[in-house]
Amino acid sequence: MIATLGIEFTEIGEDFLVARMPVDERTFQPYGIMHGGASCVLAETVGSTAGLLCLDTTQYYVLGLSMNTNHLKVARSGFVIGTARPKHLGRTTQLWDITITNEQGKVVSENRLTNMVRERKSDQLELPLPK
């Protein structure tokens, strides 16, 4: 889904991860604005990936457990930018705040993602991290 929607990781910091997604025919709903589900995909993508970056991925992985999204502004074109910041990084759960803005810096949605941290089994494939 990341490649299909054109999501790209653009910046990584000590306590944040940023990705962007185009607002176009891939992410539109019938009224020509970005579909709310596309915001959720961007938020979960950046939050789950940020969660992985906090772990030893040879031993652990994360699964999205819960997502809450508040849509505040429509997006019609350009890109939206999702920035994930941790609220809690525990042994079994993580809590992430993800703010999605438009290119002008106006907030499109506020999102909260809860990740479950799971121990990797020896027969599981290694997960690729963003480039």
Describe the structure.
This protein is α+β, with helices and mostly antiparallel strands and 131 residues long. The protein has one domain (2-119): Hotdog Thioesterase (Thiol Ester Dehydrase, Chain A, Roll), CATH 3.10.129.10. The chain is built from two helices and six strands. The chain has helices spanning 2-5, 36-53; strands at residues 8-13, 16-22, 60-71, 79-89, 93-102, 107-119. A six-stranded antiparallel beta sheet has the order 1-2-4-5-6-3.
Summarize this structure briefly.
The chain is α+β, with helices and mostly antiparallel strands. The chain is built from two helices and six strands. Helix content is 17%, strand content 45%.
Keywords:
131 residues; alpha+beta; 45% strand; six-stranded antiparallel beta sheet; Thiol Ester Dehydrase, Chain A
Architecture blueprint of SSEs:
Layout: H1 2-5, E1 8-13, E2 16-22, H2 36-53, E3 60-71, E4 79-89, E5 93-102, E6 107-119
Antiparallel strand pairs: 1-2, 2-4, 3-6, 4-5, 5-6
In percent, how much strand structure appears in the residues? over 45%
Number of helices: 2
Integer-rounded radius of gyration = 15 Å
> What class, by secondary structure content?
alpha+beta
* Strand line-up in the sheet with most strands: 1-2-4-5-6-3
CATH topology name, in short, is: Thiol Ester Dehydrase, Chain A
Largest sheet: 6 strands, antiparallel
Q: Determine the mean pLDDT.
A: 94
Assign a percent range to the helix content: 10-25%
The beta-strand count equals 6
CATH class: Alpha Beta
The secondary-structure element order is: HEEHEEEE
Q: Provide the number of structural domains.
A: 1
CATH superfamily: Hotdog Thioesterase
Shape annotation = globular
Low-confidence stretches: none
CATH level-two architecture: Roll
Distance between the termini: 16 Å
